[in-house]
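Sequence only, no structure available. Ideas?
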Amino acid sequence: MTWTCGKFDIDLASTRVMGIVNVTPDSFSDGGLYLRPGDAVSHARALVRDGADVIDVGAESTRPGHRPLPAAVEWARLEPVLRQLLRELPDVPVSVDTYHAETARRAVDAGAAAINCVYTPEANMWSLVEETGCGFVVPAKDYRPIGAQVLQDPMVGFGTTREEDVALLGSLRRLAARGPVLVGVSRKRVIGTLSGEAEPARRLGGSVGAAVWCAMCGASVVRVHDVKETKEALAVVGALAQQEGGAPWNGIK
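Reply:
I predicted one. C-alpha cells follow.
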C-alpha cells in the first residue's frame, strides 16, 4: 500500500511517522516556540534528522477554544516557512495542516505534497486533490477512497470526551480495515488523563505508548511531536513482534 502525495509515493507497508511543526503562538503544547520562520525550519530539519517520514506544518491552532484564523493571516505565517522547507528539504514530503481551501490551493501550488484537513473539507478541496494528485487527510466521517491519495483521521481530541477518545482509539482496527488511517494523539488531553501528566510537553511516555498502540492497530501514519522516541519505540516493538511470528500490525521495517 502506498500514499500518493504528488511526486512522492510513500510506502505504507510499515507505520510512517509525521513530525509536527506548529507555526503558531497558541498551540496547546508548543505554541510560540516556532513562530519565527527560521525557528520553524530549524525544527523541521531536526525532525527529519530524527527520522520523520513527513513534515506537517500548520499555522492555526485547533486546540479546544481556539479562535479561527483568516486564511490570509494563516498563509502569511505559512508561506515563508513552506517555501524555505521546500528549498532545503526537496526529498521530504511536506504536508500543510489547513481547512481553508484558499490556503490549500496556495500550498499545493507552492509545492506542498499533501493537505491535512481537520474539518469537513469544502467541495473545491476535493477538486484540488483530484486535479493535482496531492495527498489528503480528512476526518474519518468524510473519507472517500480516491485512488491512493486519501487517509482518514479518527479525530481524537476534537470536541470529544475522554470516553469518546478512548473509544476512537479502541476502534482503529475496524477503521483501518476500511482504508489507511492517520492518527494524531501526541500530547493530547486524553494522554494526560490516562497517564496523570497535566503538562502537555511532559507527556512523552504516554504519547509514545499511544503511537505504538496505533501502529499495533494498523495505523499507516502517526502524527507526533517527538519523532526520535516514537521511531525507536516502533522499531523495538516491531522487531519483537516479528519474533512472535508477525503480530497483526504495521510496525517499522
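Residues 71-88 form the longest helix (18 residues).
Hope that gets you unstuck.
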